[in-house]
Amino acid sequence: MVASATGKGAACHGFERGAAVSGAESGSEASEKDPFGWREERDGFVRAFAGAWIFGIPLLFTMEMWWIGRTASWKQQLVFAGIALATCLGLNYAAGFRRERKPTSFHRRMDDTIDAFAVGLIAATVTLVVINRIRLSDSLESTLGLIVLQALPLSVGASFASHVFRRESGSPSTGESTGDEDQGEEGELERPHGHSQFRNLLAELGVTAIGGVALGVSIAPTDEIYLIASGMRPVHQVASIIFSLLVSYAIVYASGFGSRPRDVPLKSASSVTVFAYAVSLATAFATLVLFGMVDLEDGFEMIVAQTIVMAIPTTMGGAAGRLLV
Amino acid sequence: MSEGRDSRGNDASQKREQENGSGGEDKRSGAEWVTLVLGLIIVLGVLGTVIWLGATGGSRPVSISIATHVTEQHHFAGGYYLPVSVTNEGDDAAQELQLRATLTGPGLEKEEVEFTIPSLGGGQHARAMFVFRQDPASGTLEILPVGFLLP
Q1: Bridge pairing between strands B125-132 and B79-88
Q2: Which domains does chain B have, with CATH numbers?
Q3: Residues A47, A112: contact at Cβ < 8 Å?
Q4: How many interchain CB pairs under 8 A, A with B?
Q5: For residue A105, what is the nearest residue in chain B, using CA coordinates?
Q6: SS3 category, B84
Q7: Is the CB of residue A278 less than 8 Å from the CB of residue A204?
Q8: pTM of the model as a whole
């Protein structure tokens, strides 16, 4: 049966991610319900964007990349693009971002290469606009150089997204495992136990924080967080929050990849995403304090701005952690 | 399907892969055509613009113009804050661009303030703030680029 992506009507699970995870529908059923292939395409591109951001976010937060991109000549920009396309083509032979309709011919792999590079360009543009590294007053040449250079690592991340986000048919993190869970009272595996739900919630919190720290420690000690935060207006801060929430949701749920969702008290994917974002905010703040990049005597507005900026990579890391563990 | 489903439930996808590999069935779905066209538009549009800008743009050397915004000047805690706009009118980029502002005038002590911009690409603008101990509006102010690195 096709499961709702938003988890409505799922009595035994906190939520369900989508038909791609259930593994219960046959390929013919999927083809009949999606003859145009939009769902597979959507899943593939969400996977591509997720892989792009997880791989490329540290370089998006590197000022040297901004400087090099802005000062690159048009010939250098073409070289960056060429390297990106060649790398993506090579990766598409091994991984790619598609799962259900993996290409087998060279021209189809070229299609995926172009798609991956386009994903990199879009992801770079969106992120740089959100963190106010691209402004209307900037020249077109310098802006294009910045985008093309940043698209290189992002498109590489998109090109091995399917290899990173492997689908697991069963995971010990679900409430249905026969591990040493304390479900022995009833001996039933279908109905979740309240105590295991709470434990699952703690596990979710833990991997979110761990994933956030893993990605955040490479960024927190640098000056870029302060630079970005000091250059952001309130509209950019709000955009950063929305951006973080959407990317987190996309990474974990929208394309239905990775391990099954844990059975947690929060019943909707949106609730879990917001909860995880709160954890990521706390992780971001703690990481900044740990590295001495934030002083509690600083202005409240600046502390908030830095935390919101730092929460972009910690949110992505947290989502990746929930996905991969 | 007669072979059953493997642990990953890949039976359906394996079947599709076989179809794709065997009979030239490596066809694009309708959705793939749409995304391919959009991807081509984006990629060719960006690269085409890069080439067009490179072909039509010149190779003018770095040329720095500086404009002061006297009406936006403010005074705080003994300092006079004067915003300036810095523009690279050339096509080449400048790195470690150093600017020096010199304030002179009757009754004023000669004052020099320096500021460094890490990088300024061709056609790019930047805003900077000079802070003086004396009111720049009461004397003669001269702001000049001192030097920069070529990439």
Answers
A1: antiparallel
A2: 11-56 (no CATH), 64-149 (2.60.40.10)
A3: no
A4: 128
A5: B26
A6: strand
A7: no
A8: 0.76
